[in-house]
Design a protein that fits this description.
Structural class: mainly beta
Oligomer: single chain
Strand order of the largest sheet: 11-12-13-14-19-18
Helix content: under 10%
Largest sheet: 6 strands, mixed
Number of strands: 35
Strand content: over 45%
Number of helices: 3
Length: 427
């Protein structure tokens, strides 16, 4: 049997270090075989083997060594450096909670312990603990909620939740000690509000609508736009109600519904629309900066933790990765991943791993997938979270993955910090 010389290397702690002397191994070895080899080098008889993943030239190995060297025009006479890392475990379901209607959207608080907000087709938003215990219900809309977002403030005890609805309004909720104290209903859109995103400093939210406009709203409208704020005649319980008559800014340029928004930085907003465009906007001038015509309508946008890559989920079932800072986003996608046979619902980056993101799909099986951008061929893992379409997914700062959709069930899944995965990529 033909052999190839490989040299193992790793940046893992010292306890995972093995010899860096080149080893001759069969060219037929795959990820699982290499993992067994590393474990045997670490311990002759490991009681609990540690599953590893392997990278060659910063690309995850998802074939045999032979297939890799053929594809990359290498020879068996070369020494191939193989980096090993601890493989990602598949998420494990931990909690679930049932809503009375479809779950349209999800967001998680990114600055402290997990607090989750969901938008529902019953017109209500709900705040949940990380164990999916109901904290508060926000009955601020007369029609389905289509998107939700958190905006943080000065402390963990004071934050803002903003909701976008089919009733053409945006609602901005003030929270103290996890309870709503004020609600500002923002008027200005002339059709359903499809998307909403909070700026990193929490001072502003952007909303995108079927009316093809993007509007900017202050999260402190009573302070920033006092003349436009009118106290409502009635308050609901202990929550003060206000009406906001106009946005801070309106931006036009899309030719279809603005279906996705994400902030690149405090002065740059990204938008995706039904007209197949990905755009960036300068909110200091209210003008379009860059535009790229894509293949299909965009359903979700997410910027990685380093603010370098934009993941754009599409109606064609693909997620495309773009350079966030290049002219026209690099004119084309750096990579295209086929996530499903139906439209993608949502995409969200792992905040602790710049390579990983999660997607959900509007299909009834294999609708939740974790990806590593160092391997575009197959996902790290595929899950059947529920036999219904998933509309949104978020990867929280703690590692919790939260997804929901047509079934009305909110699922929370935990990604263990150690152990084995990668098997989904082994053929």
């Amino acid at each position: 049997m033909a052999e190839i010389n490989i040299r193992f290397k790793t940046s893992l702690p010292e306890e995972y270090a093995i010899t860096d002397v080149p080893l001759a191994v069969p060219v037929t070895l795959r990820r699982s075989h290499l993992s067994k080899l590393v474990n045997s080098l670490l311990n002759d008889e490991p009681e609990t083997p540690v599953p590893f993943d392997f990278l060659i030239n910063n690309q995850l190995l998802r074939t045999s060594l032979l297939d890799y060297i053929v594809e990359h025009d290498l020879t068996t006479e070369e020494i191939v450096d193989v980096e090993y890392v601890i493989a990602t475990l598949p998420p494990k379901p931990t909690f679930s909670s049932v809503h009375p209607d479809w779950i349209s959207s999800i967001d998680t608080m990114r600055t402290h312990e997990d607090i989750i907000v969901t938008g529902c087709y019953d017109g209500q938003a709900r705040i949940w603990s990380d164990s999916l215990e109901l904290v508060a219900t926000l009955p601020g809309h007369t029609r389905p909620i289509l998107d939700v977002t958190f905006a943080t403030r000065e402390s963990v005890d004071a934050y803002v939740v903003a909701t976008a609805s089919q009733d053409e309004t945006v609602a901005i909720w003030d929270f103290k000690n996890n309870q709503p104290t004020r609600c500002f209903t923002c008027n200005g859109h002339t059709n359903a509000v499809r998307s909403i995103a909070a700026r990193g400093d929490g001072a502003m939210v952007a909303s995108g609508s079927t009316d093809a406009t993007i509007k900017m709203w202050s999260t402190r409208p009573d302070e920033d736009d006092e003349d436009e704020v009118v106290a409502a005649k009635k308050s609901k319980g202990s929550v003060e109600q206000f009406e906001v008559g106009a946005p801070m800014l309106t931006m036009q340029g899309c030719k279809g519904a603005v279906t996705a928004l994400s902030w690149l930085d405090d002065s740059t907003l990204l938008s995706g629309a039904d007209d197949h465009t990905l755009k960036s906007w300068d909110i200091t001038t209210g003008t379009e900066k860059e535009s790229l015509l894509g293949a299909k309508a965009i359903t979700s946008l997410a910027v990685d933790s380093n603010q370098k890559l934009v993941a754009a989920a599409g109606f064609d079932g693909c997620v495309r990765l773009y350079d966030a800072h290049s002219a026209s986003f690099g004119s084309k996608a750096q990579a295209t991943l086929t996530c499903s046979g139906g439209p993608c619902g949502g995409v969200s980056w792992n905040q602790d791993n710049e390579y990983q993101f999660v997607t959900c799909a509007l299909q009834s099986s294999k609708n939740l997938k974790i990806w590593d951008r160092r391997s575009y061929r197959v996902p790290v893992c595929t899950l059947d979270s529920q036999p219904k379409k998933l509309f949104d997914v978020q990867w929280a700062a703690s590692g919790l993955i939260v997804a929901g959709g047509e079934a009305g069930t909110l699922h929370a899944l935990t990604v263990p910090g150690t152990g084995g995965m990668g098997q989904a990529g082994d053929e």
